[in-house]
Amino acid sequence: MEQARIDLDLGQAEELWREDDADDHSGWFCVRTDPFPCPAAGCTFVADFMTAAHLILVWEQRDDPNLLRQAQNAKEVGRNPRIAEYQSSFGPSASYYAWEAAGRPVHGIRAR
């Protein structure tokens, strides 16, 4: 059986993904963590939250199964996760489900 091949461009993305929805996510929930660096080569961004393309991922419900799964993943790699109520002062955000619908873009890696 032949496996599907995925080509990845490991170069730096010229422009980071932004959620089309301009909604204010204040009052939604996010996963705060100990600081960790962006894995993209040459990027100096350091995150304090679970992020995607440098956007803080947010969930509308505190007990959303995907939020809890992401917190568990962060715990397993020693990032000391805490669920927090998102505030716009934390930085730009994106809904986890909008990020999924966009194909889960990650800074520095683009599917072709």
Q: Any idea what the radius of gyration is?
A: 15 Å
Largest beta sheet, briefly?
3 strands, antiparallel
Number of strands: 8
Q: What is the overall number of helices?
A: 2
Helical content (DSSP H or I, runs of 4+): 10-25%
Helix/strand/pairing category: alpha+beta
The protein's oligomeric status is single chain
Overview of the structural elements:
With about 110 residues, the protein is of the alpha+beta class. Helix content is about 15%, strand content about 25%. It contains two helices and eight strands. The chain has helices at about 65-75, 95-100; strands at about 10, 30-35, 45-50, 50, 55-60, 80-85, 95, 110. A three-stranded antiparallel sheet has the order 3-2-6, covered by helices on one side. Strand 2 and strand 3 form a beta hairpin. The longest helix has 12 residues, at about 65-75. The radius of gyration is 15 Å and the shape is globular. Residues about 1-15 have low confidence and may be disordered.
List keywords for this structure.
alpha+beta, 112 residues, 3-stranded mixed β-sheet, globular, disordered N terminus, 3-stranded antiparallel β-sheet
SSE topology:
Elements: E1 8-9, E2 29-37, E3 46-49, E4 51-52, E5 55-58, H1 65-76, E6 82-85, E7 93-95, H2 96-101, E8 110-111
Parallel strand pairs: 5-7
Antiparallel strand pairs: 1-8, 2-3, 2-6, 4-5
